[in-house]
């Protein structure tokens, strides 16, 4: 801005003076070379040229008349005497200085007047050709009228007279021309030439005057530019002297902003105590303060990072899932166990509200926000991404500082298997007691009923069929109770599996062969085209498990077959191998499937969907698979190759051998 200001101050007066000078000079030149002076000179030149033009027109008229008379002679035109007489009369009567009949090569045929001694052979051939084109019948191409001038004007060497060359249009004088000359005073010609030269000189001087005005303008412009340059250099030096301390402060501020906290502005000891010096001292003090604060901040950050790493190390060894939340319930510190329990990468969602990812924790966290001083715990049912429902024992603790809530710590653990084992142990004890207490009187009851039937059936004369029906009912129901007690006993005293390498395909085919025609209205698909698959198992227990699954599927299909919702019952037993090497034996039917609300509990004891079911079949299969190091998965067909009904999968995770 300083440089611009000095340039403006220096250039404005110079530009104004230059503009005024150029205007004054232009006005003077316009006065000298315009108006009356220019008109007078041009008028003089026009008068002189008009005088010559008048003589040319008169010469053209007189010569054309002579040429017409020659052409009118007819055959007499070839008579030299007649031509000579005609030319002499023309020279005498028409004020011509000479009249000549010549050929294109310059040879004079007849001459009259004063031009007999002139060199006519120097006339260019182009003049003769041009004269041939200008004939009496020649028409102007632009106006469409007959040309007024018949010949062409030429200048003879060594003469100031006006001459005209006309091509004669007569067959008696082929290729001949009339050259006529009219006298012009030598003084008049000299005056005309002087007038033209004066007008030309005046015009050249006028054009030069415009150039002089341009030169003067450029000179003024150069002077103005020199002044601008000088002012700019002076302003630049002054601006540098003024702004160098500010530029140094700006660069120091940039370095300070980029992280170089050791940046300081140099201040000389003999510097005057002006505003810039005060500003430099203030900047250095600010830099010292920022450097000290950053040191404290880095130390606090290192301590916080050390505490965080310590907390992460502690949390990584905790068996429970732990998720640290801020006061807005946003995730800030999950441990690896939490990722595993919820089957979710929580680290990728740090800063996200936990309730957006897992709404099942919403009620417990809402209670914690309402009562921050109380420990809140509850069992939460969580559905994993793979569809499994797990029971999470969850606790929420509020982290507080005074009356302010800093955050929350949510801990949880998967107690699904623990609850299942607890219920299974309890039901095993119940089954053992039932088997012990009920089985003892069953045999005497059955034997007594059979004995009554054999001994007294023949003695009863009044309604013996009623007596037989009652005893048969007692015997049948005692048998059903005995079978139920046997299931209780099997569940309570599950034998340990005796494992070895066995062909699972052969085991499945044997069971399918035995059970294929056991259920009315239900077709059991056979395994075909499968290669042997060896697994480590107890074939008797695996056969028992597969029979239980097929029996459950067939019994579940009966109501659908009866009410007509399923026309033909179908049970499909299939065998697959996963990418991890596990073997999966699947039993799938085309019924209505398992109820979704009971799926998490179907494998627990005494959970059943059938009216007369004991609820022990799936529990026994689950126990057998767990004893084999595998697992039982229950669900409904949802794959492209699955049947729409229930689907039970026996998974053998350990390869054979």
What does this 3D model show about the protein?
With 657 residues, the chain is an alpha+beta fold. The protein is built from 14 helices and 17 strands. The chain is 52% helix and 17% strand. It has a 5-stranded antiparallel β-sheet with strand order 2-1-5-4-3.
Query: In CATH terms, what is the fold-level topology of the largest domain?
Result: Heat Shock Protein 90
**Radius of gyration, Cα only, in angstroms?**
66 Å
What is the arithmetic mean of pLDDT?
77
CATH C-level name of the largest domain: Alpha Beta
Largest sheet: 5 strands, antiparallel
Measured distance between first and last alpha carbons: 91 Å
The number of helices is 14
What characteristics describe this protein?
14 helices; 52% helix; Beta-Lactamase; five-stranded antiparallel β-sheet; 657 residues; 5 domains; alpha+beta; single chain
